[in-house]
Amino acid sequence: ENLYRIEGWGQPYFSINAAGHVTVSPKGERGGSLDLFELVNALKLRNLGLPLLIRFSDILEDRIERLNACFAKAIARYNYPGAYKGVYPVKCNQQRHLLEDLVRFGKPHQFGLEAGSKPEMMIALALLDTPGALLICNGYKDREYIETAMLASRLGQTPLIVLEQIEEVQLCIEASRQLGIKPILGIRAKLSTQGVGRWGSSTGDRAKFGLTIPEIIQAVQELRDADLLGCLQLLHFHIGSQISAINVIKDAIQEASKIYVELAHLGADMKYLDVGGGLGVDYDGSQTNFYASKNYNMQNYANDIVAELKEACAEHNLPVPTLISESGRAIASHQSVLIFDVLGTSDVPSGAPEPPQEGESAIIRYLWETYQSINEENFQELYHDAAQFKEEAISRFNLGILRLTERARAERLYWACCEKILAITRKQEYVPDELEDLEKIMASIYYINLSVFQSAPDCWAIDQLFPIMPIHRLDEEPTRRAILADLTCDSDGKIDRFIDLRDVKSVLELHNLKPGEPYYLGMFLNGAYQEIMGNLHNLFGDTNAVHIQLTPKAYKIEHVVKGDTMTEVLGYVQYDSEDLIEQIRRLCEQALLDKRITIQESQRLLQNYEQSLSRYTYLSS
Ligand code: PLP
């Protein structure tokens, strides 16, 4: 269990059962669990091939419950005379089934939605039917966006239009005048508090969004002149996603609460404070400020927000605001698990090499002697010798002095030296820098039925770490150390960074493949941002997805969203399947006329071609 750290990142949803399979407890501690391996097999019987994205709607519900419970507890603990009304940022995962669930699960908490763009606002407007829930309108806006948001109030929605650019102030003033609607306006501030990690540049004077302090003053003035200062009721900030250190959150809230108080003093009718996203996910389970983790929990987060606002408002005799957070990652990550299979493996040669033969080149003898002499005292020095001899063998080969078979022998001996040295370094407490890559160089390559670009784009684009592990055979010692190579013919289509305790490791411990038996891996906590940012590199399309809900006795499949077929994917790049088939048919006819193909072969080819077009873009194993 410790190997994959599931007890850290998996809590309370994922664990390992006595059969050595991953178990999912979608309701957390509230009970009920599923054997993930058995679930995958059952789904395969329903013709749902891998790769397969499984969404557990109960996990989504549990995340919403947890977040609201943490704020409720903080509000009670600090006697906060106000409320919390969270919103879910649609950008994090816009899939319809997920959003419909989310709105439904959020009803008891008046949980709302945040739109970061005009198309997202279209979704939010249509889906959000919870009385009293907030509709936060962020992102760049044009007049149409602003008008639509304002008119939404006539439908019973509570839209809050957040001014992100100074130009939007006049747009709002004009729209308000024309429609005769007094909107609720907010300001997104560019805080000086610096975020941390991958998204640290979301804040500061040069951040992409938000108003600087002088612009905030200008906006207040313009609204006052238009007699709309009373509409300014919200202050918003967002210091980046996945904030790993709690002190950064505290600093931001402190700065924001000062601005909030000042806005009230300037005459705005302040009622809401929106702390944006940033609530982190513990991908490696280390509970540290490492970027793939966070050194605080949801309760600490809620406590700090509530306590700071209570104090800041009390100091200035101001009513406290309704608190809003836009947590996306913390809500959506856990609910989806991506299951994929291993198609095959490749290894560097291993095992004891043959000693040199009579008449073989001296370089082979030197490598053999190096191989034999390696021990715990000299392994670092002899690693250099072995590398040098191998280079020399290649130079000699290029000069025509060494034959191909001899080069093969030299390379084989070099790998044997590396294998021996690696075995020694694994026992050492300290591994010299130059030998650190040895593990990666000697790793097996496991070929996975997946496109990293489609299903885990952040792995490729920003070195994001997701927990990855086999979902079965966990009662067996894994004997291989591997990196994962995907189906794309792109050398970036690989995963060679895996979670470790507060660190990254370059290989994943895996099991030997057994002939005729599938080997399933799971990628966890990847429900946020990955699906929509995935791309069609090499024309691998959307994967199959299913929504699973726990029932008192077992589970039910709520929705099946079939992955793209080849026809669909080819359609995205303007190919028509019928035209393609017709073209192949013509080529077959010509080949028949020229007697280059038999009628049986041409029929087989056409049949395969037609069938493939209606099939999944991934390989069937
Ligand atoms: N709010 C805004 C304005 C954002 O830009 C983002 C994403 O970065 C979020 C909320 C969601 O952040 P997270 O997923 O870290 O909760």
Keywords for this entry:
621 residues, alpha/beta, eight-stranded parallel beta sheet, 21 helices, 39% helix, binds pyridoxal-5'-phosphate, decarboxylase, lyase, EC 4.1.1.19, polyamine biosynthesis
SSE diagram, text form:
Layout: H1 6-9, E1 14-16, E2 22-24, E3 34-35, H2 36-45, E4 52-56, H3 57-77, E5 87-89, H4 96-106, E6 112-115, H5 118-127, E7 134-137, H6 143-152, E8 158-163, H7 167-179, E9 184-188, H8 213-225, E10 232-236, H9 246-265, E11 272-274, H10 298-315, E12 322-324, H11 329-332, E13 336-346, H12 362-373, H13 379-398, H14 404-425, H15 438-441, E14 444-448, H16 452-455, H17 457-461, E15 468-470, E16 480-485, E17 494-495, E18 498-500, E19 503-505, E20 508-510, E21 520-523, H18 530-533, E22 544-550, E23 555-561, H19 566-572, H20 577-593, H21 599-613
Parallel strand pairs: 4-22, 5-6, 6-7, 7-8, 8-9, 9-10, 10-11, 11-12, 14-16
Antiparallel strand pairs: 1-2, 2-3, 4-13, 13-14, 13-21, 15-21, 16-17, 16-20, 18-19, 22-23
Pyridoxal-5'-phosphate binds at residues 89, 92, 116, 138, 238, 241-242, 276-279, 326-330, 528.
Bound molecules: pyridoxal-5'-phosphate
* CATH architecture descriptor of the domain at 82-331: Alpha-Beta Barrel
- Strand composition percent: 15-25%
Determine the number of helices (DSSP H or I, runs of at least 4 residues): 21
Estimate the helix proportion, in percent.
25-40%
In round numbers, the mean pLDDT is: 95
| CATH overall fold name of the domain at 82-331 | TIM Barrel
Report the count of strand segments.
Answer: 23
Structural class: alpha/beta
Tell me, what's the shape?
globular
At the first level of CATH, the class of the domain at 82-331 is Alpha Beta
Runs in which pLDDT lies below 50 for 5 or more consecutive residues are none
Largest sheet, strands/sense/barrel: 10 strands, mixed
* Distance from first to last alpha carbon: 28 Å
Radius of gyration: 29 Å
Looking at this structure, what is the CATH superfamily of the domain at 82-331? Answer: Alanine racemase
Modified residues (N6-(pyridoxal phosphate)lysine): 91
Domain Orn/DAP/Arg decarboxylase 2 N-terminal: 80-332
Family: Belongs to the Orn/Lys/Arg decarboxylase class-II family. SpeA subfamily.
EC number: 4.1.1.19
